[in-house]
Specification:
Layout lengths: L3 H23 L5 H31 L7 H12 L8 H15 L1
């Protein structure tokens, strides 16, 4: 829940904001390609913003025996790998994510 709730909330908020702006500038209902673009961009931005939560969750799952909190795991990543450690693997999500998300809207 820690990762999906912020992601979903941010994604829907961004999509509705982008959709409203496109409707205002275009004067009416969006065409299919505009909806797909707004969905892809909102998914990409939401995914990028919440990706560190996903990295922390995965690290906790891989090493479940150590019984650490989310904050402890995030601190360990930052100490050992720096901020870049929180975004490991994000580029692959950029490849697959926007396509899947744009279709869902």
């Amino acid at each position: 829940l820690l990762g999906i709730v912020p992601y979903s909330g941010l994604s829907f908020c961004l999509f509705e904001t982008l959709k409203a702006r496109l409707e205002d500038s275009g004067g009416g209902a969006l065409k299919t390609h505009q909806r797909l673009g707004a969905g892809a961009l909102s998914g990409l931005l939401a995914q990028s913003a919440t990706y560190p939560l996903d990295v922390v969750r995965r690290r906790m799952q891989v090493d479940a025996e150590r019984r650490r909190s989310e904050l402890q795991v995030a601190r360990e990543i930052l100490r050992g790998e720096g901020v870049r450690g929180l975004y490991k693997g994000l580029s692959m999500n950029w490849v697959k994510g926007p396509l899947a998300i744009s279709i869902s809207f």
